[in-house]
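Batch manifest line 390
LIGAND: thymidine-5'-diphosphate
JOB: complex structure
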Amino acid sequence: MSFGSMPLGNGFRHNDDKSEEFCYLMETAVCSECSTFQLVDQPSPNQMFHGEYAFFSGTSERMKQHFLEFYNQVKKEISQTDPFVIEIGCNDGILIKHFAKNGIQHLGIDPSANVVKRAKENGINTIESFFSTKTANHILEKYRKSDVILAANVICHIPTINDIALGISHLLSKNGIFVFEEPYLGDVLEKITYDQIYDEHTFLFSVHSISEIFKRAGLEIFRVEHQWTHGGSMRYWLSHKGSRSIEESVGYFLNKEDQLAMNKIETYKTFKKSCENHKYKFLDLLQNIRKEGKRIVGYGATSKSTTILNYCGIGNDLIEFIADTTPIKHGKVTPGTAIPIRPHKEFSMDYPDYAILFAYNHATEIMNKEEDFIKSGGKWITYVPEVQIL
Ligand code: TYD
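JOB STATUS: finished
ARTIFACT:
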């Protein structure tokens, strides 16, 4: 399936940047062996993750709470007296900081210099690196085997997935656990959240695909848990084959995926049609509102919205600006569509008639704190699970 020419999801540019914008053809395919949904072509990692990487994990209160709960759950599973915890793609340390604070030996790994700097400022032992078998060997030389390896919204970013699986298997102690969470393909298909498809998401996983991929490295899933994050994610718990008993949740989701026909090509043909219908409905709604002379502003300059805006052909003629709390995005414009990104206070200074909830994954948090927008007569527009004015 092709989504056409696409800029980088996090490729926010200074508004006076006149250089040619990097774009690639965003096409997807499903692996006939492991049923992993994936990008056909992907920009190089250095283009996507660099010293000005615009994504900081610690921006949402609900996400902070989510990662605290993640920490508490993992901690309950640790039986070793002196555990060593590693997080792949630790970003600014939103998860691993809890292990650090509690005196647990830990190591964060992240390839982006600016987020590593922030993690170090947060007191986290961090190395600036992509994860690979080579990194795993380096860690083994300098430290020891890890009892817990964690990752959140990271593994789906790494094209060398088989090497990653081997590296993790090599680094994981005999009774260790590898726990990670990622946007879930089942949610993408059910809610038509094709905005989960962008350059950084090489893969969208299912329980079937994770099981197949990690089986090759001697690891198996013993538990899965569905999460609300990122519009629907799955947390996968893995261990060396045979070291844990496999819990009911694994069979439950494998069955559910069979029922959804997630390994059948027809499912993806239907998905393609649904994406096209969604696009026309969304564009139609925004154009009609603008014809009435009403103002539309966006809320949350997410990476996901890059796909929506570019695929639907929505630009600064329809959306005045996007309000966002991330300072590094202020004064920049959205990739490919040049919609200005402004500090959040500009939203509340002069409420628009409509605000599109691009950060719909934080809907509860945002709508709670923006009650005054509704009181001013403003209305939210969402496009998940369907295009509608709330
Ligand atoms: P995020 O959920 O990380 O989505 P993606 O992975 O697609 O980038 O991004 C949320 C964005 O929304 C981020 O730029 C911060 C912004 N945001 C706000 O502006 N206000 C808020 O209250 C919240 C929770 C997020």
